[in-house]
Amino acid sequence: AAPLPWRAMAASIGAVTSSAASALKWGRRHGPRRRGDTPPRAPRTARASEAPPPSFEETEAILRRASEARTEGAPPPSFERTMLWCDDEKKFVNAGEPQTRLDDPCLQGLTIEPGEVVSRIDKARGKGGRLDLTGIGLTKVPDEVWTLTDLTDLQLSNNKITRIPDDVGNLTELERLGLAGNRLTEIPEGIGGCECLEGLWAHGNLIGRVPDAIGRCERLRHLMLAGNRIRELPASLGDCKYLEELSVPGNRLKSLPETIGGAYMLRVIDVHGNRIARLPDSIARLKSLEELSAQGNCLTSIPDDVGEMRRLVRLNVAENKLSSLPKGLGDAAMMTTLWCYGNPELRSLPMSLAKNVSLKSVWCEGCDALEGDGVRELVEALPTRKGGKGGATIGLDLAQCTRAGLKIRPATTLDANAAGGLACDHPHVAVSEMPGAAESSRGGADSRRVEMPGGYSRGYFKHVRWTEGADAPVLIVAFGSAPGVPNWGGLLRKLRRDLLARGVACAGGAGPDAAAAVEAAAVGFDVLYVADVARSWYHGEGIGPGGTASNDEAERTWREGIGRVAGRYARVLNLGDSMGASASLLFADVADHAIAFCPQVDLVSASIRPGRSARWMRHYRRALVSAVDRAVSGRGGSGRGRSRVEIHSGTWEHDLAQADFVPDAIGRDRIDAEGLALEVVLHPVDNHRLALALEEGDELLPMVRKAYHEQLAAA
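Predicted structure:
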């Protein structure tokens, strides 16, 4: 028998007396005595009414027989039971007989033995109990779980569960409930009985509605519902007075409830990749709100009072249909970042932004209707604050700079804001290009946005070149992850500065390494930033009459957009993390080298995924594996020959399984026999955010720099 925790220890009733349990407890806590230990006290004389304590051998034999009986499928014997501490009686009491049998149908075919499930349920009894049944293949939760009324933490994520019964409301002490990565279609009304619930994680399901009963979870702080099929949120959400984080990106919402202003403790609202046409006016009453992400919706305006949200730090309204921003937006005194790029109808930026001393960056590329005079006025006003020092960085595309009459020139090492080869005489302007590479599905040759039928913006492209008027030998395609924004910009700016510094240091030096450093600084690399704001994993939406054909059409839209730019370059390097890593593999046949950090490959078994059908996910898996196969075998059709594919994973079992799926699907024997350049690289990081961990450990930059130099040498 395994060692048991202090507050839940096995006691035998009948054959094993309470004194035997005491003897067993002493052995577990202290172990056998060794030579030199203090001699034990002389045992007290047993009273005539006491039975002598059994030996350890006798105790172990009894527990072994109980274990064998349980293995054979018989009900657990009455003498082997879990003892729980009772505060009222100030003693250990019998926890009662287990209800879950080893032959229960819901315990068959799991990744662990039925006895292990029963053991976990047994150990979760009592106050403060925690039960983790994550990723074991459950299709139904054992009924006994809903009787553990003292349970505080229940984790059922990454299974195949299709329904949670209303009996979940029996868990009145439950604080954390994990349901992510299942096949749930609804949240039960019984959730309202979980009056102590603080966090509900149900992302990556098929949930279509959230019940009104959620409003009775008055202590709820985190509601995570990304990647589902939710069309509407209940008005009762405003009753969740302690709600701090509302995450519902990648759903089918067309609006937010007007009552949202009642959840006055909200700090984060993420609704990107939906179809919301307007934000409720009450959202401006959320004085604690720090982050609002509404990218990739259908917004035509935002509430005028947003500027009164004094704690707002980050506002993302990119990729919408905005024609204007509130004049007082800059009055949001703590706002540091504003994303409003990809709003082709946006005509002006509020001058109040120039007065905001907290503002660090404004990104407004791809806003074709921005009036040049207004842009110039804002650009010239920004440096006048902070005692005349440079103000916030403002991201503009080349066409906007031209309309504003801003002088553009080749960038130098002194241009800190230069992401590529272009710079502006105003040092706080970051210049990029928004090429016509991303044609919409309706054929608009100048579109910077990726649109699907219905006119919903699903993503965007941004092109940054090393030198003005010429392509570099190497293009780095940086795929954005699930948040829908470019997340490789910081690292690639570091890489640019690193190459320039090394070029200066090696100028005049001898040897091939010095020559390579000088050449890299001279020719550099270009970057194509690609972002999917719909959380569709760079694939189709999987809805409507088109079925998989519409998914293939959507993938072709992405592939053609990437291919138009990539086809101009001698060598192409793909980079991606999480959802972006999946894209790096999905379009590996367009590149010479694809690097993917913790991708989702088999979305059916992934815990991070969109709210799509199993058929959609299987189709996606086949498309991804096929693309990698074409890439490494040289059948990509882009004329690049055999590509190299690296899949990087940490030690988290989920990520390892996803990483191994690709070589397993292609065939490890075939990879060895044909010498295919496909490898899985393992890092000692037990975290899905592997790229971030590597960057913090100063390992990511050298890795990307090496990959770049290899492609430059091949070019």
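Summary: The radius of gyration is 30 Å.
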